[in-house]
Amino acid sequence: MPHTDNGQRARSVASPGDGRVQALVERIHANLEAHPRQDAPTVGVEHELFLLKGLCPASIDEANAFFECVAAHAPAGANTIEGRRGVERIELLRADGRYTVIKFEYEPHLIEVASTWHRSLTSLEVDLQDALLRVEDAAKDVGLLASSRPSLDLPLNDERLAPTTDRLRALEHSRVVAMQRRLRRDTTAARFTATMAATQVQVGGLDWWRTPSILTDLHRLEPEFMGLTHVPGFACGEPRSRWKAYRDVFEGMPLLGHALDRSWSMEWWAAGLLASPLVGGPDAPWAGWPASELSAWPFAAWEDFLHAVRDLQAIRPRLFGTVEFRSDPAQPDLGTIMSVAALRFASCLAVHASAFEDDLPSISEAHSSWWSGPPSECVPEKRLTQLARVLGSRGLREERYLRRWLSP
């Protein structure tokens, strides 16, 4: 399917004449408008941790014991989800009826705490503190360490890092194909996500699809924060080095890292999705290829395509209406996690209120600076002060979460 008979690339299925870009735009708009909207800005966190036995990644049996322990001590109303090998997900019921989740990210040694969304940073902190303490206590009870760190110092060909589920095997297979398309013989780097962890922030209630300039301005701000979330002492502890690992595997992919070099538009995003690699196992001949280079469309519905395509932007809009910030390596403790959440939340509040219209670099300058700009030690004191004021104006004392980065 990916090539024509003479070995040349197949014609583009995303050419202007066939209307696929516009059709995808319409499908995305329909999804967004159909999803329940927030009537005020919200914030949530997805924080990844390694399960370790000493310095070694946890085995499947050890990880299963950990999840069984979390489930055994879960509060009333929690849901325990079992998979083929045992418990793989615990949903903790919160007072508002929503759930914060503890689940596998890369089985068996990388897990994720995914909070529900909150309207204040204070309630988010309480939520995360409870979940992280449950993770820490359960790990100790079964002789493991739940480690908040950006990376593991292990060679990627270590068999303990091999994918253990169909989902992980499909992801790795697609990365291998994407690298082989660029004539890369050594595809070991395709397993890079097994040794990397992140702290990601989701902000909702922005209606960014109705005001696309929000996403443009967030991209213009992004390079200023590269040094703030640096975790010293780890190979992928600096945001830029983290994304160089992505670039090594996905070089040339349009939606990678700080991808935006022009004003954001839904058409730009849709065209980028159609030109991005698809995820599938060895039985999917299109795996690792972008839809725009396939000779035939393999999906029965747009939802199938959207489920398969890889969007690896550092600032990623989501089909359920949030904006996801993906630049930051896993932070070491709750205090730094909350500082990152406050930074991202305040940035969205400020951009939503058009607070920085005359005080931002051009989008092309921001794009270039993010990938290869000034040293990460440059801390934007002026910008942080502005963001602290934005949080302070809410009257919830949320500006305290930015104090670690501000001068006394």
Descriptive report:
By secondary structure, the chain is of the alpha+beta class. The protein folds into two domains: 271 residues, no CATH class; 102 residues, TATA-Binding Protein (2-Layer Sandwich), CATH 3.30.310. The protein is built from eleven helices and twelve strands. The strands form two sheets. Strands 1, 2, 3, 4, 5, 6, 7, 8, 11 and 12 form a ten-stranded antiparallel sheet that branches. Strand 11 and strand 12 form a beta hairpin. Helix 2 packs across helix 3, helix 3 runs antiparallel to helix 9 and helix 5 packs across helix 9.
Give a brief description.
The protein is 35% helix and 14% strand. The protein has helices at residues 20-34, 60-72, 121-141, 166-181, 213-221, 239-250, 266-274, 302-308, 334-352, 363-372, 381-392; strands at residues 42-53, 56-57, 79-83, 86-93, 99-106, 110-114, 145-147, 199-204, 256-257, 312-313, 315-317, 323-325.
